[in-house]
Design brief:
The complex is a heterodimer.
Chain A: E1 2-11, E2 14-24, E3 29-33, H1 40-48, E4 54-59, E5 62-63, H2 69-73, E6 76-79, H3 91-97, H4 107-120, H5 136-150, E7 155-156, E8 159-160, E9 162-166, H6 174-189, E10 193-197, H7 201-207, E11 210-215, E12 218-223, H8 225-228, H9 231-238, E13 244-246, E14 253-255
Parallel strand pairs in A: 3-10, 3-11, 6-9, 9-10
Antiparallel strand pairs in A: 1-2, 1-4, 4-5, 7-8, 11-12, 13-14
Helix pairs in contact in A: 3-5, 4-5
Chain B: H1 3-25, H2 30-53, H3 61-69, H4 80-114, H5 127-141, H6 147-153, H7 157-177, E1 178-179, E2 182-183, H8 185-209, H9 212-222, H10 231-247, H11 252-258, H12 262-267, H13 272-294, H14 300-312, H15 316-340, H16 349-367
Antiparallel strand pairs in B: 1-2
Helix pairs in contact in B: 2-4, 2-15, 4-10, 4-13, 4-14, 4-15, 5-7, 5-8, 5-9, 5-13, 7-8, 7-13, 10-13, 11-15, 14-15, 14-16
The chains are: A alpha/beta, B mainly alpha.
Chain lengths: 262, 374
């Protein structure tokens, strides 16, 4: 389990997180949503150990400030929003970098894991392509494959591993949005945990076990999609009056921008 | 060779070529890289021997070799002249060429990895100018102001001064060009020009103050040359260069991860701050030591890594050793041209590397505009 308590983050002299506490359990996909500038990405960066914060973040009970970078890297992997590279790496070389942590594994195994990761993000046959020549969405999927390689066991030494995804589907077409979300779901089903910063409320509602809605550096609502996706919460958080609907055969809420009142 | 043997050999070559081809297509360049490093090892050794055997004067290497080993008989007794030419002029020169070339190329690779950009090079961004300033400071003020330092550090004083000059410039440049883990290429290059100009101006003041003997020292030193190579210089710069070259392979995985960004490298388990500290000190030490013994030799640090990246890719585990070998070979080769093209005089080697390197650098700029964040 990842638990963050009372996170406060100050960027230059502006406070961007005002005491954020959350829990993300193994086996569950936790989605963080909210308007632009609400502190979603900052929260994820604090949990990743990348941004300085006040408060505590624990992964499986270990305070992350007491862990060495490589110990942390074996417990959680992080997908950044976009990655620009100025060197001509091939897709295969990038993906295999994920496997070099902790001394790495044997070459044959490395190749197999890297191949499986590429298959999983629907990039079979891309291993020889140059990263710089791919489209934004393809690059995002390559990074996803690298992240999967870093944490290729959802449960390692009896402890669950975590994926921290920062807008994992932001540059993807609708088919690959589903591919990546299913992949994250599958990772949870196999015992790992996922925290994803999401912009798409409908995808979040479809795939998340728990949704956290943030506004202005604070958590405004947290719970199952059914609990969180209500007309009144949507209006408080996004400042926009919309009607939440429910799919005909099920309980998954969805929201159409068409319902917004002007 | 019989026909069947030819066929076997062909089959083997074809097998290897086919494997390399399929490696290339699947984006795995590790086998190609290992083969290239082995080939470069052989080429470097050959170039090293060739450099000892060529020169304006005739001198028989085999006689000297036999003489050193005590194998020559009385009739072939070694002439003192041959012995001096080979052992005290050509050999130290080849050794120094190898060390300086390797150090310049490797400094380029590490600096480019650190700044996450293929255009960063100690020569271009002012680090060499900073190192020069340190060295000139010692040459001009050495005996008067820094006399006690010479007493303590002996012939290491010049490399140490150059190292400190290079270190200061690198730290300053990194501070200016990198903000919260993001390096701006434009800022880096422009700040490099400014720092280089500033170091140059201070160097100019020092040259203005220098007396005739110091001016002579400065002129010969500043042209960028291996001409003054001797065992003392190798003793002074060699250990520093060898130490830096020995340290950087341990940075290879970290530098690979760093190409994805500082945050990503940290996520992947790299202790980023420590990596950067070691990288900066290594670059400053290697550049400082090289500049101290050979003056400013430009473009090796940018051309060598760039050519190699085209063939074996940017993986630092292979790029570092391959660059060291190719850098050493190229500098020995450039030095052979420098001392044989206008005999009995010789051209400063910096002129040759600039003639070959500058157009190449322009070509890189034209070709790679989209890929280098320019």
């Amino acid at each position: 389990m990842i638990s963050a308590s009372n996170l406060i983050v100050q960027l230059s002299d502006k406070r961007v997180l005002h005491g954020v506490s959350l829990e993300a359990r193994a086996g569950e996909l936790t989605a963080i949503a909210g308007p632009n500038g609400s502190g979603k990405t900052t929260t994820l960066k604090a949990i990743a150990g990348e941004t300085a914060y006040d408060g505590t973040v624990r992964i499986n009970g270990h305070d992350i400030t007491t862990l060495k970078p490589w110990e942390l890297a074996l417990k959680r992997a992080v997908l950044p929003q976009a990655t620009v590279i100025s060197f001509p790496f091939t897709v295969r070389e990038i993906v295999r970098m994920g496997l070099s942590i902790g001394g790495g594994v044997g070459t044959a195994l490395t190749d197999r894991i890297a191949q499986q990761a590429l298959d999983a993000v629907d990039l079979t046959g891309f291993s020889g392509r140059f990263y710089q020549e791919l489209s934004g969405g393809e690059q995002q999927r390559v990074q996803m494959a690298r992240v999967l390689c870093q944490i290729w066991e959802p449960i390692r030494n009896g402890e669950p591993s975590f994926l921290l995804l920062d807008e994992p589907v932001s540059s993807l077409d609708i088919r690959h949005q589903l591919t990546i979300m299913r992949l994250a779901r599958d990772f949870c089903a196999r015992g790992g945990g996922v925290i994803a910063v999401m912009h798409d409320l409908n995808l979040s509602a479809m795939f998340a076990d728990k949704m956290i809605l943030m506004k202005a550096g604070r958590i405004r609502a947290a719970g199952s999609p059914q609990e969180v996706m209500t007309d009144s919460i949507m209006e408080t958080v996004f400042g926009c009056t919309m009607r939440v609907n429910v799919t005909p055969l099920g309980t998954t809420p969805f929201i159409l921008p068409h319902t917004a009142a002007h | 060779m019989s026909r069947s043997e030819t066929m076997v050999a062909d089959g083997r070559t074809e097998g290897l070529l086919a494997r390399l081809r399929s490696d290339w297509l699947s984006g795995d360049r590790s086998r190609i890289a290992r083969l290239l490093i082995a080939a470069l090892g052989v080429i470097t050794a050959t170039m090293f021997c060739a450099s000892i055997m060529t020169g304006a004067a005739d001198a028989s290497v085999s006689d000297v070799l036999l003489g050193v080993l005590g194998l020559n008989n009385v009739e072939q007794a070694l002439s003192l002249r041959d012995r001096i030419i080979i052992l005290d002029i050509r050999l130290p020169r080849a050794v120094l060429g190898l060390l300086v070339g390797a150090s310049l190329a490797v400094s380029g690779v590490v600096m480019q990895g650190l700044f996450r950009n293929p255009l960063a090079d100690p020569g271009l961004v002012g680090v060499s100018s900073g190192a020069s300033l340190g060295a000139v400071l010692m040459i001009v003020l050495g005996t008067s102001v820094f006399g006690p330092l010479f007493a303590v550090f002996g012939f290491y004083t010049l490399p140490i001064a150059a190292f400190l000059g290079g270190l200061g410039t690198t730290l300053l440049l990194y501070r200016i060009a990198t903000r919260s883990g993001q390096t701006s290429v434009a800022t880096m290059l422009l700040a490099g020009i400014a720092l280089g100009a500033l170091a140059g101006a201070v160097t100019g003041v020092l040259i203005f103050m220098a007396d005739d003997k110091q001016l002579r020292d400065l002129t010969f030193w500043g042209l960028g040359s291996l001409a003054g190579a001797n065992w003392t210089k190798i003793m002074a710069a060699g250990p520093i260069i060898v130490l830096s070259l020995a340290v950087v392979p341990f940075l290879a995985r970290g530098l690979n991860a760093l190409t994805l960004g500082e945050a990503a490298a940290f996520h992947m388990g790299v202790p980023v701050q420590r990596l950067k500290n070691i990288a900066i000190v290594s670059v400053a030490a290697a550049t400082g030591a090289s500049v101290a013994v050979s003056g400013g030799i430009g473009f090796v640090g940018i051309v060598v890594p760039h050519v190699l990246r085209l063939i074996i890719g940017p993986d630092h585990r292979y790029l570092l050793p391959a660059s060291a070998l190719l850098g050493g070979t190229l500098l020995i080769f450039a030095d052979m041209i420098a001392r044989t093209i206008v005999p009995p005089a010789e051209l400063p080697i910096g002129i040759i590397t600039a003639f070959a390197g500058a157009p190449f650098f322009l070509w890189i700029l034209l070709r790679g505009r989209t890929h280098m964040g320019l």
